[in-house]
Amino acid sequence: MVTTSSVPSGTYDVTVEARGFSAYSAKTYVGVSRSTELNATLQVGSTNETVTVSAESAEISPEAQGGQVGDYFEYNLKQKITINKNQSALVPILQSRVEAEKVTLWTSKDDDDTDNGHVPLRAIWIKNTSGQMLDSGTFNILDGGAFAGEGVLQSIHPDERRLLSYAADTAVHVKQEDEAINQPYSRVKIAKGVMLLTQEERDKSKFHIRNADKVARVVVLEIPAQDGWSLTKDTPKPEESTASFHRFRVPVGGGKTAELTVQSVHPQDTQYALTNLDSNLVAILGRQQRITPAMQDAFDRVITARAKVSGFDQQMIQRRQETDQISADQNRIRENMKALKGSAEEKALLQRYTGELNKQEDRLAAIRTELADLQQKRNEAAAELDRTVMAVNIDESF
Predict the structure, then answer these.
(1) Which of 334, 279, 326 is nearest to 304 (CA)?
(2) Which of 11, 102, 264, 375 is the right S-S partner for 229, CB 3.0 to 4.6 Å?
(3) Where are the chain's structural domains?
């Protein structure tokens, strides 16, 4: 077994000779800072015993040009340097100034958070102005020549901006106060028998920021962006917005406090069949001052037509209830008639019960006639209600 270490990486020709055996030759790759083992089997042969490892000088460039290779990224070295055998070197593959700003990052709490937000973090806000891909890995921060923290970054494309946190900022304290506000209806649209009411939901968050340090801070508040929600016009413009966050820059002097109010709005639509319009909904719109004279006239006509239909429905319900009561009475009378057989009162009571059944049958026949008439009138009233609601065409914004 032949073991090599502390040689530059590369492919080497390895020859193994021992007295009484034939020489063994092979090519093998040796990596930097690792041991490489080669198991050599020698056949019986000559008597010389030598082990020779030959290596050419390795040439490496201190600067590199990046390139995309499938899902990976590579740096191609441009300038050559020479590293002699049994030597090593720390070779920078990319040295470039990038835009960077020292900030304090605070991320707003989510709805599921039980605490009031998260711990503020020291961070750098960088923009990759190197023109090359910055590969993923760890990074260290030196502040005034002293170690300030470390973190992990993902790959950063050219001209991409990224916030990289590296340590806690215990001097900054942020308090968040939330308030949900339901605004009055902002739009009433009626067409084809359907009333669409649009109401704005509003979320209001107020942030109180206190800097206990004597050194001023630039605090970046990171607010989650919600689908379907937009910032209101009276909210300060964020420094940056992504699919996931709105980021606001808030300068806070040493020993000072600052505030930021962020409001977002979400339109919510509710549909009603105009044929189901009732006085309660009209009263709500009235309290919000969302009824114009044209709307009031249309509502009056719809409610009157609907009340007419409801009146016929109520009369038909009463007739059906009376029918059910008569049927129950007839069943009771028939049971009584069965119980009279063979009794002294059978003849007299049978005549009485028969008279009652005849009267009830007459009433049932009358009710059937009344129900048919009411059904016809109800159908006519329903058709008139449909014509009334289909004739309404209103679109009002407030």
Answers:
(1) 279
(2) 264
(3) 2-56, 59-95, 99-273, 279-397
